[in-house]
Amino acid sequence: MRSPKKDMAGVVSFIPNEKEAIPFMNQIRNLEFVHEDRLNENYEEANWYDFEVISVYENNDKVQGLSTAWHRPEYYPADTVRILSRYWKDPTLRLQCTHMQLSMPHLVDMIKHQMSICKELGFKRAFISREKSPRYFNKLIKSIQEKTNTEWHIFDDKQCVCHEDSPSCWQYKAEVIL
């Protein structure tokens, strides 16, 4: 069993089916994803035990943000994992963040944790993808590179990250070697 990874920014990352994850999993299951977000069903219908890693941002012992690392063998090579997937922020945290604040400390720590744990789990590559805003996505990845001291490959065109016939599965993508 691994101990959850923790840091000063309030981020804790863990493997969902390990004993130490139980208190966090209980909180996640009780979150209400009710704010105006077109992706709410991504969170409400998620089986949180399907993910390789979950990272939560805690503030005053309350989960205010989360993201996952997820390997989908039907879509990704065996050595590749998607990180920063299912990224969610509580509405109160959304009010504190502006679009000008790229790669906030909790986001950077989620990425570092997920890359580290996924490497321990045997993955060789990780990627981040987003459906919209290629200019913002490129700026975000460049900021992540600086703050994590990593080299990312940003694909020129949208890449398929799930069902080929679904337009939302064609996304802007950046990949890093772990």
Task: Provide a descriptive summary of the structure in words.
The protein is built from five helices and nine strands, in the order ββααβββααβαβββ. The protein has 178 residues and is an alpha+beta fold. It has a single domain, classed as 3-Layer(aba) Sandwich (Aminopeptidase). Strand 3 and strand 4 (62-70) form a beta hairpin. The longest helix is centred in the middle third of the chain and has 16 residues, at 105-120. It is globular. The two termini are 21 Å apart. The mean pLDDT is 84.
CA gyration radius, whole angstroms: 15 Å
Q: Helical segment tally?
A: 5
CATH level 1 class label: Alpha Beta
Q: Low-confidence stretches at least 5 residues in length (pLDDT < 50)?
A: none
Distance between the termini: 21 Å
**Helix/strand class:** alpha+beta
What is the helix content?
25-40%
Which shape, going by the Cα principal axes?
globular
Beta-strand content? 25-35%
Largest sheet: 9 strands, mixed
Q: CATH fold name, please?
A: Aminopeptidase
Mean pLDDT comes to 84
Compute the number of structural domains.
1
The run of helices and strands is EEHHEEEHHEHEEE
CATH superfamily: Gcn5-related N-acetyltransferase (GNAT)
Short description:
By secondary structure, this protein is α+β, with helices and mostly antiparallel strands. The protein has helices at 22-29, 40-44, 91-96, 105-120, 134-148; strands spanning 5-6, 11-14, 53-59, 62-70, 80-89, 125-130, 152-154, 159-160, 170-177.
